[in-house]
Amino acid sequence: MMTKRQNSRLFLWWRFLTGLLFLVYLQPTRSQGIFNPVDLLEGRKKVIIPFTYTHNFIILEARMYGLIPIRLIFDTGSDHVILFKREYTDLLGVEYDKRIQVMGSDLSRELYALIARNGLLEVKGLSPRKQDFLILEESYFELDEMIGLPVAGLIGGSFFRNLVVNIDYRKRKLTIYDPAHFKVPHDFVTIPSLLKTNKPYITCATTMHDGSQVELDLLVDTGAGIPLLLHTNSHSAIHLPEQYIRGQLGMGLGGYLEGYTGRTEKLSLGEFDISSILTSFQDINPTWLSDKDKFRHGIVGNALLSRFNLYIDYTHGQLHLKPTRDLPEPFSMDRSGLVIFAYGLELDQYIVKSVLENSPAADAGILEDDLLVSLRGIPVKYYTLEGIHRVFQKKSGKKIRMVIDRSGQKLRKEIMLRDLI
Which residues constitute the domain of residue 368? Predict the structure, then answer.
């Protein structure tokens, strides 16, 4: 651990933040025509959509133009359908309407994207819908390698505007309701939500590490794998705790996100108090602080939201919450200091992307670019990337034996896991 008086160059990679915080500025686009979101349901009261949940991201199966199957991250913090891989639309000969600038997740780097008008998108379980696509001109990050699964882009929450969306993290399903036929389950707690540019915001009572209490406006962001992110320059009461780690919080659109990681004493979601939350601390672009449509004190991500069964009522501006048995569990993180990426055609081979200084992995002599051969006596081909990450999240004091390949030489290593913060 480190304190404010022990500044260090340690880098932290959160296993529940493989790092997607998509913050996109779009110039106005022409209308796609009149579309009633309820038409997605084709007269049904509700539709159930299964999803994959990996690295704390909700991944939906979809089809583009009725031809190409793709995976999309469901992201309530975005207002658009964004494709990361231009090769899909190039392959189909899609015409692009215009080239625009977008802003990366570090809120400073200008990137470029192409707009394809009225593309056909069919989410599994729903009827096809004509939808403008925002296609990144270049591939700006190694998303597939970071989560070990091919993902083509994200689908913003506005796709389901004027509907009610239930996220059941335990059963891995979204249920989309026609609001005319939706009733709040009796055992759920309702909290108000303010919709700004089709994104849900909530006000939470927060207790900082020094005991100061403050109400914060937080974006409900299923496109973020973190529990909580607070913008240190958005309120005078938000500042770093005594113990923190400085470095890269993860990767977003346009590059790595720099900041700090510590803990927030308590966050209250309605009547539910959540203690000792692993929290990212990062400044936000000052121009956002004066823009009522962009202002926020921070983000609540899936690593916290997944401790609830959650309804987002876009029509009435409400969230309905029911805690799962995981709510009181402590927030844990990687205890090895390793950043592992997948590679290969099947994403079933694994490489050490980075090693945290002064971590168990560094103490064991593991180096960047080492290849994983076996883990706990099992060849890594039998692991998923998420399964490997779970091994390195086991309790402090656990010994993890592994074999690595370094320039063709097989080396046996042993890591003694310990808490990094």
Answer: 338-416
